[in-house]
């Protein structure tokens, strides 16, 4: 287990404003002992990269209910460009099954579809956070 | 990356800053090594505490204040602390939601911290985080506390200057002369002054400040954080205060260092006493538990024991 709580950014990109799901997940991750940086919807890709960097998060969770998951491959490229490859990315919400592969190929670790148990989401995010910490560039030597 | 850590911070490398804050916040040997490498804090970057009850408008006020300070060419770092769960240890850090428009501005850095169990309005690691920020090129460091009631005043031991944010309908004129959080203010802000009863609120605060027994009358400023009204005056007064403290120089800076050290010692000591099971402490705690000794006398007894044995 990690010694300090995982830091997770829960956010939404694009024009979709349905934020009930992201709030629900934010609260569930809080209850699982994580530190959740929560933002309102309508962030753009560059916002998310800046947030991930400035807040030094281990995992980024993107909630998408209205096709904004298609912006995620672009987010993956932008994160890499900002040297944030160690940060784990998960997507939750409405993602058509035949588009899931597109996200996984782009580097997304996991897509959570409707009905995913909160315990499972928390467990996976926590595991991803632990991996991210191991892979993060070491500041001291 | 490591050898020129201090240089990277001074240059304003945000990736290094963000990582360094995490290491500092997490404490332990790594934090110690990091802070040693960074060197002593640059206390000429003033630390401003912003405190007040939950929902008083602290984050929204900071959003407007940052805009005002940026218009005056000041760069600003904001540390926004939100409470942690007493059950899971987790936290939802949502203060920065109110400051989103500054996200793309390179002259602004916003960092959310969890209180991580701290109960005085700040987190135990905030001192170390501030030390990292003082090695960075931000002119001002704003620290937003957890929503604070009457006595969560740890910010006093951390900040050079404190802004206490009050709202209408928070009690009568007796509340306004009570001890505690109102006393730590260098500036009192009566926010939400567009609400009914706000004149009464401002009046009560001014009345309390004008009592002849009050050695240090504190300015009371009206603001409407949602529109930014009054925030220009707040920025003026704040910069005046920060400037004067820097001009008055060594004495004030030393007083500030002493206050910050005393605060840090108190927070460390509390944690240590709870975790370490020191014999003397446990004996005295047991006698309090048995009702043989009131808590105040017990605390004095422990302090005597420690200071005598040294």
Describe this structure in words.
- The complex is a heterodimer of chains A (141) and B (310).
- Chain A is an alpha/beta fold and 141 residues long.
- Chain A has one domain: 3-Layer(aba) Sandwich (Rossmann fold).
- Helices cover 43% and strands 17% of the residues of chain A.
- Chain A contains five helices and five strands.
- Chain A has helices at residues 20-31, 45-54, 72-81, 97-106, 118-135; strands at residues 7-11, 35-38, 59-64, 88-93, 110-112.
- A five-stranded parallel beta sheet of chain A has the order 2-1-3-4-5, with helices on both faces.
- Chain A is globular, with a radius of gyration of 14 Å.
- The model of chain A has no long low-confidence stretch (mean pLDDT 95).
- Chain B has 310 residues and is α/β, with parallel strands linked by helices.
- Chain B has two domains: 41-248, P-loop containing nucleotide triphosphate hydrolases (Rossmann fold), CATH 3.40.50.300; 259-309, no CATH class.
- Helix content of chain B is 44%, strand content 13%.
- Chain B is built from ten helices and eight strands.
- A seven-stranded parallel beta sheet of chain B has the order 4-2-5-1-6-7-8, with helices on both faces.
- In chain B, strand 7 (187-190), helix 6 (198-209) and strand 8 form a beta-alpha-beta unit.
- Strand 2 (35-38) of chain A pairs parallel with strand 3 of chain B.
Helix-strand blueprint:
The complex is a heterodimer of chains A (141) and B (310).
Chain A: E1 7-11, H1 20-31, E2 35-38, H2 45-54, E3 59-64, H3 72-81, E4 88-93, H4 97-106, E5 110-112, H5 118-135
Parallel strand pairs in A: 1-2, 1-3, 3-4, 4-5
Helix pairs in contact in A: 2-3
Chain B: H1 5-11, H2 14-26, H3 28-38, E1 47-52, H4 58-71, E2 76-82, E3 91-93, E4 108-114, H5 126-134, E5 140-144, E6 161-166, E7 187-190, H6 198-209, E8 220-222, H7 231-248, H8 250-276, H9 279-289, H10 295-309
Parallel strand pairs in B: 1-5, 1-6, 2-4, 2-5, 6-7, 7-8
Helix pairs in contact in B: 2-3, 2-5, 4-7, 9-10
């Amino acid at each position: 287990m990690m010694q300090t709580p995982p830091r997770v950014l829960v956010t939404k990109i694009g024009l979709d404003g349905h934020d009930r799901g992201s709030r629900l997940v934010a609260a569930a991750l809080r209850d699982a002992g994580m530190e959740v940086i929560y933002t309102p919807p309508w962030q753009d890709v560059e916002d998310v990269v800046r947030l991930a960097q400035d807040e030094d998060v281990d995992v980024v969770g993107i909630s998408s209910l209205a096709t904004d998951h298609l912006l995620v491959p672009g987010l993956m490229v932008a994160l890499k460009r900002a040297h944030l490859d160690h940060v784990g990315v998960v997507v939750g919400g409405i993602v058509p099954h035949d588009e899931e592969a597109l996200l996984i190929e782009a580097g997304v670790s996991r897509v959570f579809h409707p009905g995913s148990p909160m315990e499972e989401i928390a467990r996976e995010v926590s595991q991803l956070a632990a991996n991210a910490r191991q892979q993060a560039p070491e500041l001291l030597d | 990356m490591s050898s020129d850590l201090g240089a990277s911070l001074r240059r304003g490398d945000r990736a290094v800053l963000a990582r360094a804050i995490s290491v500092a916040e997490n404490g332990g040997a790594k934090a110690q090594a990091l802070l040693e490498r960074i060197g002593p804090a640059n206390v000429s970057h003033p630390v401003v505490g912003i405190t007040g009850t939950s929902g008083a408008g602290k984050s929204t006020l900071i959003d407007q204040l940052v805009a005002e300070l940026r218009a005056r060419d000041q760069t600003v770092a904001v540390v926004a602390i939100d409470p942690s769960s007493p059950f899971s240890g987790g936290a939802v850090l949502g203060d920065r939601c109110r400051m989103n428009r500054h996200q793309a501005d390179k002259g602004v850095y916003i960092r959310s911290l969890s209180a991580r169990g701290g109960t005085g309005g700040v987190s135990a690691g905030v001192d170390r985080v501030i030390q990292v920020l003082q090695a960075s090129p931000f002119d001002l460091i704003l620290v937003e506390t957890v929503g604070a009631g009457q006595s969560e005043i740890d910010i006093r031991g951390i900040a050079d200057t404190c802004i206490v944010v009050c709202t209408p309908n928070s009690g009568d004129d007796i509340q306004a002369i009570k001890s505690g959080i109102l006393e730590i203010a260098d500036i009192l802000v009566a926010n939400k002054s567009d609400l009914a009863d706000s004149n009464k609120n401002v009046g009560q605060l001014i009345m309390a400040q004008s009592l002849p027994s009050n050695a240090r009358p504190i300015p009371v400023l009206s603001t409407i954080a949602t529109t930014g009204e009054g925030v220009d005056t707040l920025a003026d007064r704040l910069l005046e205060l920060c400037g004067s403290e820097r001009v008055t120089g060594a004495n004030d800076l030393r007083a500030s260092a002493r206050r910050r050290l005393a605060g840090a010692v108190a927070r460390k000591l509390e944690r240590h006493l709870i975790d370490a099971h020191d014999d003397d402490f446990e004996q005295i705690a047991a006698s309090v538990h048995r009702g043989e000794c009131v808590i105040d006398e017990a605390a004095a007894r422990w302090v005597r024991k420690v200071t005598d044995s040294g």
